[in-house]
Amino acid sequence: MRTRKGVRAGQYLALLGYLVFLGFPFLWLISTAFKPARELAGLHPTWIPRHPTLANFRQAFDEQPLLHAALNSLLAALGAAVIAVLIATPMAYVMARRRTALAKAATGWVVVSQAFPFVLVIIPLFLILKNLHLIDSRAGLVMVYVVWALPFALWMLVGHVRAVPTELEEAAAVDGAGRVRTLVSVTAPLLAPGIVATALFAFVSAWNEFFFALVLLKTPQKQTLPVVLTHFIGAEGVADLGPLAAASFLATLPSLVVFAVIQKRITGGMFAGAVKS
Asked: Which residue ranges does UniProt annotate as crossing the membrane (predicted)?
């Protein structure tokens, strides 16, 4: 009994340490966003601002086009999430139901491709988009986000498809439904939690992405929010800390709101993909 209690106490301590590790940067970001310039320059930083102010937020909006950049990020993230899910759903269905050697090889390639660093693929992607005249284009950026999100979307949706009992599809086939009708009318509604979870992760990934947007977009009016945030850092590497923290805090809000709104669907989708029929 003592050993079990000790193990459980260790698990709770590890979980508490992990939560502190995750929450500290965000809490410090919020604190910095509301501190006046005098407190930010002080030698003895404090957790809670002594004189909270909204001046950093006003300065951030005055210095950079944050709303326009946020709109660019929103369009790119929504486009990437929708297109990735539309492509990945039928592909995942085929990979899950056709358990051939080719399907297994494709699944293995999907997992391995997640280990590729951005730097490894940026040059081929840049050359391809240049030949297609899609450099400095929102459409080109969405295309890159879709390609980058597809492996994860496929890997996630394959598990959800395998969790759907094949007996339901066989019953639909007996009633005369074809493959496409079965996928749309029978399988897709049961995959809704998984589809929502996959779309959410694709959206958040595209919303927070920085490297591709930095390399592929040159026109200031087309730049996404993560790229615009770097403009608060001067040529000598000195950051305008207050406005940067305020803008960064605002940039994290959409992801937090999306997670809060559909948290139950995410949890249900992830557990559904972990259960096999």
From this structure: 12-30, 74-96, 108-129, 141-161, 182-207, 244-262
More confident residue, 46 or 110: 46
Give strand pairing partners of 233: 239
The residue count of the chain comes to 277
Q: Which of 133, 100, 158 has its CA nearest to residue 276?
A: 158
From the list 201, 197, 231, the residue with the least C-alpha distance to 77 is: 201
Are the beta carbons of 56 and 242 closer than 8 angstroms?
Answer: yes
C-beta atoms surrounding 244 within 10 Å? 22
Q: Model pTM?
A: 0.80
Output the CA torsion 123→128→133→139 (10° steps): -90
pLDDT in tens, 38-94: 888 777 778 888 888 899 999 999 989 999 999 999 999 999 999 999 999 888 888
Q: Are 51 and 37 in contact (CB under 8 A)?
A: no
* Spatial distance between the Cα atoms of 214 and 224, rounded to a whole number of angstroms: 8
DSSP string across the chain = -HHHHHHHHHHHHHHHHHHHHHHHHHHHHHHHHTS-HHHHT-SS--SS-SS--SHHHHHHHHHS-HHHHHHHHHHHHHHHHHHHHHHHHHHHHHHHH--SHHHHHHHHHHHHHTT--HHHHHHHHHHHHHHTT-TT-HHHHHHHHHHHHHHHHHHHHHHHHHHS-HHHHHHHHHTT--HHHHIIIIIHHHTHHHHHHHHHHHHHHHHH--HHHHHH--SGGG--HHHHHGGGB-TTS-B-HHHHHHHHHHHHHHHHHHHHHTHHHHHHHHHHHT---
